[in-house]
User: Which sequence fits this backbone?
């Protein structure tokens, strides 16, 4: 009995020295992937929120724009407001005026042409053709073999024309 106890507590190689290190490495890799996914999702959510706020600013301006100049200066000013607000939030890639659509709507939310001296019932400001690269912070191989993927963000805001 004494001999068996000595064998159990005797120092020496048991063949399990590296098991904890291997398990730790596997767990750390999985945790890092989860954290990277959370960070990427948070970044895209932040961009979407910033773009939504920018469209809200543009729609708010358009809802009170002077009806006499709604097509000549109102649309251009609203577009500039959206671009400046989005780029002030440091979205990447930079938002351009080609990514902003300002639309006048009738009472049933059908698209109509913005015309001076003709008041629309509603106005809509939208972000179009804006893609964010996923995997930009920590490129991962997706199922398609690509190191990254793109998500298209299309926030928009519709408001009643108040003027």
Assistant:
């Amino acid at each position: 009995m004494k001999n068996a106890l000595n064998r159990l507590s005797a120092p020496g190689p048991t063949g399990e020295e590296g098991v904890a290190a291997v398990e730790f490495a596997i767990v750390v890799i999985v945790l890092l992937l989860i954290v990277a996914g959370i960070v990427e999702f948070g970044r895209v959510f932040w961009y979407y929120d910033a773009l939504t706020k920018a469209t809200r600013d543009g729609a708010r301006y358009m809802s009170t724009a002077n009806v006499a100049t709604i097509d000549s200066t109102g649309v251009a000013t609203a577009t500039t407001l959206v671009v400046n607000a989005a780029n002030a939030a440091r979205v990447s890639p930079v938002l351009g005026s080609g990514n902003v659509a300002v639309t006048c709507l009738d009472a049933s939310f059908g698209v109509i042409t913005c015309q001076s001296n003709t008041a629309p019932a509603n106005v809509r400001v939208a972000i179009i053709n804006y893609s964010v690269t996923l995997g930009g912070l920590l490129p991962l191989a997706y199922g398609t073999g690509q190191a990254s993927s793109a998500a298209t963000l299309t926030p928009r805001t519709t408001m009643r024309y108040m003027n």
Observations:
- The longest helix spans residues 19-63.
- The mean pLDDT is 86.
